[in-house]
Amino acid sequence: MGLSKPYVTGVFNNVSSKQQRKLPIYCVERDDKKISISFDAAWGADDTDEILQILDKHGVKATFFLVGDWVRKYPDKVKKIAAAGHDIGNHSNKHPHMGQLSKEGNKKEIMAAHEEVKKLIGIDMNLFRPPFGEYNNTVIEAAEECGYYTIQWDVDSLDWKELGTDPLIKQVLDNKHLGSGSIILFHNNAKYTKDVLDTIITGLKQQGYELVPISQLIYKKNYYLDHEGRQKPIKDNKQASLKIK
């Protein structure tokens, strides 16, 4: 499962000070109140049907990041997720620590899962979330070269800590990072996720948020990332002088 990573503005030990620090997309600058819910699926699948039912009840489309091994073990669940209109994202093939792999090793992990999903449901994924939320320049470059946007989150539900329902609800609805363009992290098989999802979605809607899949939240071109990993659109010539995607 993914682990919470705070915003970081420094440089990893394995990146020299002369290299540009690459960041994934943690959240998105938006003028509207659109946000995204995401689920990492790496281990079990017992709660997946109930999660899909809750999302359907609220008319919400989410993003599911799937590990290749999970896809092979639960192909019917993958088909259900896709049939319901949710985003399917790549969460690696075997859930390794990808920062310890070479660029070629990263590409093999990403593309093995990519081909597994394409073979099963015929789609080409383009959203990637590294296992454990761990990344470095090599990981992000490998994903880019495979045609992927690397996606993190700015609101961690902490469902993987299994702290109970009330702490989980408060962790999301009262999160200091929650705002327009936020990406919320859940796991499909964490103990309390299915029990709080209805309440959390209701609470988010009461706060005025519209929940959309990540593919509809992020900018696909003419953007840049600030030092916190916030994706921003290019609006003027000064911003255009930054690294444009």
From TrEMBL:
Looking up SUPFAM superfamilies in the UniProt record yields:
Glycoside hydrolase/deacetylase
Q: Which Gene3D superfamilies match?
A: Glycoside hydrolase/deacetylase (3.20.20.370)
State a GO cellular component annotated for this protein. Answer: membrane
GO biological processes: carbohydrate metabolic process
> Which InterPro entries has this protein been placed in?
Glyco_hydro/deAcase_b/a-brl (IPR011330), NODB_dom (IPR002509), Polysacc_deacetylase_ArnD (IPR050248)
PANTHER family (UniProt xref): GLYCOSYL TRANSFERASE-RELATED, POLYSACCHARIDE DEACETYLASE PDAB-RELATED
Task: State the protein's name.
Answer: Polysaccharide deacetylase family protein
